Amino acid sequence: MYLTMFLSSVGFSIVMTSVWPYLQKIDSSADGSFLGWVIASYSLGQMIASPLFGVWSNHRPRREPLVVSISILVAASCLYAYVHVPSSHNKYYMLAARALVGFGSGNVAVVRSYVAGATSISERTGAMANISAFQALGFILGPAFQAAFTLIGEQGVTFAAIDLQLNMYTTPSLMGAILGIVNIILIFIIFREHRVDDLGRHIGNINYEPEELNSQAESEEAVDQVAVVSSNILFFVILFVFAIFETIATPLTMDMYAWRRTQAVFYNGIILAAIGVESVFVFITVKLLSKKVSFLNNTII
């Protein structure tokens, strides 16, 4: 699951800094406002898919929604690499590709819920911190890969037989598709699902029996709703700030520093990679602090 989160994160962030230059290249009618819609389409797709995959994973083996969502992600990444092919309305094809990438990324909810159900209370905070760390690592390496791919250039290599331009814009997306295929293979070969209770005791197979559902409903009544709502609001604020940065960083730096498209993709990739390194240190700190707090609570009890 850590690897699934990492690969999904790489597949998302690897094209983040190049969306605006690529959009300008394939469709001259696209403006900054349309870039906002392209960025928003990813989040909209993920927002729609997350509850659907979540409900699916509650009643079926989690391997099913994971494989389907990653397959959608792979197909969308391939579509992104081909949005330059149509003779018109290319920007709408990019919009559709990013929406499908977001839809495929709805598996984040499945990953987090599985890890929550496969860990005891004492392990859970650390495991969640690890998930966030792997997600941040994906954010680091994605822009770093994109920065490295600028060496290919805007023209790159063209394979006329399959209408594929392998350049600094399409190569990252295709790499994301390859990583997705690797992820699917690993899920089939390695992933073995199990669940434990809060004390870490194995509680059988993944299929929910009626009595299990009743016991879960009873336990949910004791959930601190204020804490849940507060956490959701904080998470929303974080993603809101991140979305703003994702939308305006590349066009803003191109305007302010007169960077060419290649320079903007390269330098913004380095900036985002540096931000990701900082976030990993934060997640590690949270994990260490959570262990310390858990130890103090056990000592007091």
UniProtKB/TrEMBL annotation:
For this UniProt record, give its keywords in alphabetical order, as a comma-separated list: Membrane, Transmembrane, Transmembrane helix, Transport
Bilayer topology reads: Multi-pass membrane protein
All copies of the Major facilitator superfamily (MFS) profile domain together span 1-301
| Pfam families xrefs | MFS_1
TM segments?
5-23, 35-54, 66-83, 95-115, 127-152, 172-191, 226-245, 265-286
Q: Where in the cell is it found?
A: Endomembrane system
Full protein name = Major facilitator superfamily (MFS) profile domain-containing protein
Q: Which organism is it from?
A: Staurois parvus
